[in-house]
Amino acid sequence: MITILKKLGSPKWFYHFSHKLTPWIAFFSITVLFTGMIWGLLFAPEDYLQGQSFRIFYVHVPTAFLAQSIYIAMAIFSFISLVWRIKLTEMLSKSCATIGISYTFIALVTGSLWGAPTWGTWWIWDARLTSMLLLFFLYLGVIALHSNFENRQTAAKAAGILAIIGVVNIPIIKLSVNWWNTLHQPATLKFTQASSITVDMLIPFLICFTGFSLFAAWMIILKTQNEILIRESKTKWLKEAIKNHAI
Amino acid sequence: MQFNSWQTFLLMGDHGFYVFSSYGVALLILSANFLSAKIQKRKILKSLINHDKHNASY
């Protein structure tokens, strides 16, 4: 068991494994994402209340959901690297921050673009929007801590602690629409009960969601590979791999 | 297909600006992520190879 974990945590193993995997993830994330977006733009029906602006849903909801999932993943990776001092999870955690903040930004901007025609306002300081903005600043803090320390380990430790503390914000985002009465509508898609959405809207949503998930995984892998190249530059396996053009 | 002409598609029932900006922003940010990762990798490899050459010449 321990040998398996050690193998999984080894940057060398991760680099070789992910190197074989990336062309597939790249191919699938691009095709699935484009299929989902074209479906959402062209073939999904319009909403009887919101009309065509409902198409923003297919970008807004997957990115908003994944922004939070990626944050949780980042915190878990940080926790593992803080407790067991595993290098790979430290790098994975750092890689999550960039795509996480990107998705948070997309969710905020598309939310604003959706709010303008639907609510008549670009922004209000309600609980959902404010806690989502806080998520953006938490990501920003983590990224700043990673890049503002001379010592990489100190940086990772500080960023990891902030990431873990920030997890408190996630249930606040989730429940904010139930706790406070706001303009933002409650969740349409539920895990425990039937969702209040028709199938011809659900299918393009699920395709978009899969596409955005695959794209995030792809970016986390690319970023982690870069991090491995920097940190393991003095190792023998990497020097040989560069020499053999196996990178 | 929900639209019977290009014009109705681009208009999006007067919400065209909001819908296409949303998709545009998303695609822009995703491409920026991909490009920055690729550029970063190229830079790292370049510096690693230069570093090795530099060391070998001594």
Summarize the structure.
Chain A is mainly alpha-helical. Chain A contains nine helices and no strands. By secondary structure, chain B is mainly α.
Description:
The complex is a heterodimer of chains A (247) and B (58). Chain A has 247 residues and is mostly helical. Helices cover 77% and strands 0% of the residues of chain A. Chain A is built from 9 helices and no strands. Chain A has helices at 2-8, 11-43, 57-84, 87-119, 127-147, 152-166, 169-179, 199-231, 236-243. The radius of gyration of chain A is 20 Å and the shape is globular. The two termini of chain A are 29 Å apart. By secondary structure, chain B is mainly α. The longest helix of chain B has 41 residues, at 16-56. The radius of gyration of chain B is 23 Å and the shape is rod-shaped. Chain A binds chain B through residues 33, 37, 41-46, 51-53, 55-56, 59-60, 63, 98-99, 102, 105-106, 109-110, 113-114, 116-117, 215, 219, 222-223, 225-226, 229-230, 233, 239, 242, 247, and chain B through 1-3, 9, 12-13, 15-16, 18-19, 21-23, 25-26, 29-30, 32-34, 36-38, 40-41, 44-45, 48-49, 51-52.
Key phrases:
heterodimer, A: 247 residues, mainly alpha, globular, B: 58 residues, 2 helices, 81% helix, 0% strand
